[in-house]
Amino acid sequence: MVDRYRELEGLKSSRNLDLVLMATVSSFASLRNPGTGELRRFAELLPPVYEASSPEARRQAVAALAACPAVPRSICRFLGRQDIAIAAPFLALSPAIDEETLIEIIEQSGEAHKRAIINRADLTQKVIAALIATHADSAETRDEDSSGSADAGTMEDKSEALRRTLKAMVEKSGDSDRLGLSTLTALQTSLLVRFARRREAGFFAETFSRALGGDQDLAKLILADTTGERLAIALVGLGMANDDVSFILQRSVPALATDHDVDAMVATLSPSRSIEQLLTWQAESAERNARPAAKQPQTGDSKRRSA
After folding, report:
1. Would you state the pLDDT for residue 148?
2. Cα–chain center distance at 78
3. Nearest-CA neighbor of 90 among 61, 130, 110, 111?
């Protein structure tokens, strides 16, 4: 095998680098348990050959490496940061990417790469937490840049920003067509669908709460409705596609698990009216949250006067 790697290294100047790339990957994939030296040589040899190859050869090579149980960490990072059209199968399927590398890619890549990672079957709690937090972190950064205030990331600011967006959407969208408007990102939708599919209620609730501007009390109130009607209205109001709403309802609401009329029920929901209802719930939640702060503690003198 060492001699085979030396032959491949000598072919770097060849015009047919696509074949060199595939030969490199095939040789490595044939190793049942690559040793330290073989991992090191592969990590050194692959990047320059990969960079010199065609996009199609790259796709085939990355797809083949996605099935390898052992890939050098540096190569996992390298492949995980490639264009999503090439990196997607590796991010979604490779058993070689460890937790630390996944979190690193989540923190440094765009939403398309994160959505590919969401499709993995073996996500750890730390990786899931990083996926949930990444949207909030980017939103807080935007808020800080726009306001210049250290308090821009508070729940009240986020809820108010969501209310303003929803109000604008009501004005622009009709009952049958919301013109593609949505407050949910593709990443949030992917997370909600994943957590519903796997019945991970805690992660679903946290992601849903963030989608509501961080209003945990409102999220709990909506999710406590055993009929699923409030959740349906909220998801439609946030701009989720009807197919995804129906899927989530059937997986998250026990009463609807075997209900074949869920699609029809969701189809009857008016986008603009759902937004208006969600705005009403948000206003009521904000009022409830403001009540304790509005109550001023009574002093001894005020207690005597009231007596």
Report:
1. 43
2. 21
3. 61
